[in-house]
Design brief:
Chain lengths: ~220, ~300
């Protein structure tokens, strides 16, 4: 299988997101008859034979990179990732209706300093993993913020005074609550999407269309919705 | 450099054999010339000259050639057959395997309208792909009017047409469906017809399958696409053609047929083109025009991949 991974022929390559979205994604793929057993195992391998598809696994954030370059023909990733990398040219085909989450602005419970800073200093400081989404959101409302990009454990930033608030994804809200944070504004909601490389979408249209329509059906939307 | 030079010569020989003479234009244009061609911002590099005039590096060759023809060909009877081999410049996000400066090879056929003109352009394109040895590349053929015509046959308002055209050029199908549904003026049946249309790509039979989807204006643009396909088939053969009813390019100036070139070994479009009958008029000369351009570095990459596959 390693020989065929680089060549354009062979089974379609689907980029599958590791991490929080993985389980739901594999469940959806099971529904349309893709073999996901190997991916579910504890193998350290990154590429798997899924029958009609080759599954390559990666972090959700890297999916647009691989798909844009054509290293994967199709991929599954969150809308949040697509928004953050809006300049990637990938085709967005289906809303898979899984991995639902909200991008929110959160601050410490009862903390008045963000509003205070906005009023007296003219700006807030916001920590986030999503600088682009955050900047666009505040720009839209004409509010001046300084966006600080951090890579992980964003909840820490307001606790220790790095920032007045955070822009982050929330699924259940538990992490926020455990760190004494509360949601102030909802910025956008996100679900998983099927994306395709523009050239694969054209040259392997039959396979891509069939995958898209089966996933759409499995996601509970039905083709003639 | 030897490989690249050979590739460029092979392309220029084909252009020459069809009587397309090579022209050269300056790398620098006034920014308003570059902007006149593109409704959408193609990411031109802009700066001031010593008198404070706003200049831009050209983002393609079609617009400079339109200006050249309008200002210098007044005395010459059309049609004009022109070719070029030149670099163009666009802003890119760094570290994304994209070039700020890239080579373009192509032709402009100015003064021949409709299917005849387009078919001549596609014939040169087909021969050019053969000359550089790309056996598997495919030419996508669409029409920029199809989507707008179908929507206006469904009495959609112009605002919705504009918004969804941008979505379609990005191929954001999820966003497109969202726009169509929230517009409120379209029935579920019309929405599934619209999303069905843009999935139609393949042989000439996809034109037949789109028949009856819309009203008169949609049928007329299908007729025009069929005529173009037939003219291409008669002239150059249609083996490489993929008819694609969802094809829309994000350059503002296309007015009818649209072309895109794909190769299985390169993950991005290796060339594109089409008709832009309104562009010359923006420079004061009202002539129909069509052309294509190929991305030289991407063609080079496709050649290398193909050599490797042939071993």
């Amino acid at each position: 299988m390693f020989d065929s991974l680089k060549s354009p022929g062979g089974p379609l390559k689907l980029a599958v997101p590791r991490g929080a979205m993985l389980e739901e994604t594999l469940d959806l793929l099971d529904l349309i008859g893709i073999k996901t057993g190997e991916v579910r195992g504890d193998s350290r391998s990154l590429a798997f034979d899924g029958g009609e598809l080759t599954l390559v696994t990666m972090r959700p954030y890297d999916v647009p990179t691989y798909v844009e370059a054509g290293a994967a023909d199709v991929g599954i990733t969150g809308k949040d990732v697509l928004l953050e990398q809006a300049d990637r040219s990938v085709f967005e085909l289906v809303d898979l209706k899984i991995a639902f989450c909200r991008m929110v602005l959160a601050t410490q419970k009862g903390d008045r300093s963000p509003a205070e800073h906005q009023r007296r200093l003219g700006m807030m400081r916001i920590a986030t993993k999503y600088p682009r989404i955050a900047e666009e959101h505040f720009e839209k409302h004409g509010r001046q913020v300084e966006v600080v990009e951090v890579k992980g454990s964003i909840e820490l930033a307001p606790l220790v005074g790095l920032a007045d608030g955070i822009v982050d994804l929330v699924a259940t809200g538990r992490t926020l609550a455990e760190n004494n944070l509360e949601v102030r504004e909802e910025i956008v909601t996100s679900t998983a999407r099927l994306v395709a490389n523009p050239v694969s979408y054209k040259l392997r249209s039959t396979e891509v269309d069939s995958l898209a329509s089966r996933l759409r059906e499995a996601a509970g939307q039905g083709p003639d919705r | 450099m030897r490989e690249l030079r050979r590739l460029q010569m092979a392309l220029l020989d084909v252009f020459e054999s069809f009587s397309f003479g090579e022209v050269r234009t300056p790398t620098l244009e006034y920014a308003d010339v570059v902007d006149r061609g593109d409704d959408l911002d193609a990411g031109a590099y802009r700066f001031f000259d010593d008198r404070g005039e706003l200049l831009a590096l050209r983002t393609d060759m079609t617009v400079p050639i339109a200006r050249l023809v309008a200002t210098r060909f007044g005395e010459v009877e059309p049609p004009y057959r022109l070719s070029y081999m030149a670099n163009a410049y666009r802003a890119v996000t760094p570290q994304r395997a994209r070039l700020r400066e890239f080579g373009q090879a192509g032709i402009e056929l100015i003064g021949i309208e409709g299917a005849d003109g387009t078919a001549e352009v596609v014939e040169v394109l087909t021969r050019a792909l053969e000359a550089v040895g790309l056996k598997k590349s495919v030419i996508g053929l669409g029409d920029s009017r199809l989507w707008g015509c179908l929507l206006s046959d469904f009495s959609a308002d112009p605002e919705l047409i504009r918004a969804t055209e941008a979505r379609l050029a990005d191929h954001d199908i999820v966003g497109l469906e969202f726009d169509l549904e929230t517009a409120g003026s379209l029935s579920q049946e019309q929405i599934s017809t619209l999303t069905g249309l843009i999935q139609l790509r393949g042989g000439p039979d996809v034109i037949d399958r789109a028949r009856g989807m819309g009203g008169d204006s949609f049928e007329k643009s299908l007729d025009s696409l069929q005529a173009t396909y037939d003219a291409i088939n008669a002239r150059a053969g249609a083996d490489r053609i993929q008819v694609d009813l969802g094809l829309l390019r994000d350059f503002g100036y296309y007015s009818g047929s649209i072309l895109e070139v794909y190769d299985p070994s390169v993950g991005e479009v290796i060339g594109g083109g089409g008709r832009y009958d309104g562009l010359m008029a923006k420079f004061g000369v009202d002539l129909p025009a069509a052309g294509f351009s190929l991305y030289v570095e991407r063609i080079h990459k496709a050649q290398l991949e193909q050599d490797r596959a042939d071993v």
